[in-house]
Amino acid sequence: NAGVMQNPRHLVRRRGQEARLRCSPMKGHSHVYWYRQLPEEGLKFMVYLQKENIIDESGMPKERFSAEFPKEGPSILRIQQVVRGDSAAYFCASSPLTTGYIEQFFGPGTRLTVL
Amino acid sequence: AQKITQTQPGMFVQEKEAVTLDCTYDTSDPSYGLFWYKQPSSGEMIFLIYQGSYDQQNATEGRYSLNFQKARKSANLVISASQLGDSAMYFCAMRDGTQGGSEKLVFGKGTKLTVNP
Questions:
Q1: Residue B13 C-alpha from the chain's centroid
Q2: B5 phi/psi in degrees, rounded to 5
Q3: A101 vs B50: CB contact, 8 Å cut-off?
Q4: pLDDT single digits (tens) A94-112
Q5: Judged by CB atoms within 8 Å, which residues 38-67 of A form the interface with B?
Q6: Which residues contact A40 (CB under 8 A, 6 or more apart)?
Q7: B106 touches chain A (CB under 8 A)
């Protein structure tokens, strides 16, 4: 059973460009979380999605950031008109559709560098 | 709001000795979960151990154990018999278990552990 896949692993963008980060959850997992880790910081929650639904986007910046998890295909975190402050590691995590103890399985992360 | 505090930015330990990494938390929810993750220099997040708020016993996973003191709201990680490969950042996290909550994780700032030979 493959783990959570994220691509690309490293992404370089110039200011003003768009960044698209992809996350394929573990097989059978229908819950996806996105977190951002700034240098020397812990991870901060951004958004929680289930298939075709955004459940909690309380951690998403109001502008330029969007996320989706379509019925088919990976979850996408999209950052429009990137700025230097967007440089960070972006982690995706997935969990199965069960209640109780819910471990989140993390992907390897995408390191975004904005020049 | 939920909060995780890790007061030790860095810790050093000699190989084969035990080390305790501190974590305190703040929540008003009766149901919550506490996690520890390891992040080596390669950057991935590795799950180590979990403690549920209603668990009667402290969690253990191999060389990792969690010293859960509910009244003091602390969930310290104990690593026994440290190995050089344990050198990494360690993050304590809490799951938001509120009714209708998203189960998102709230992370502390982390502790950098260095194991000396």
A1: 17
A2: -120, 125
A3: yes
A4: 988 655 556 788 999 999 9
A5: 41-45, 48, 55-56, 58-59
A6: none
A7: yes
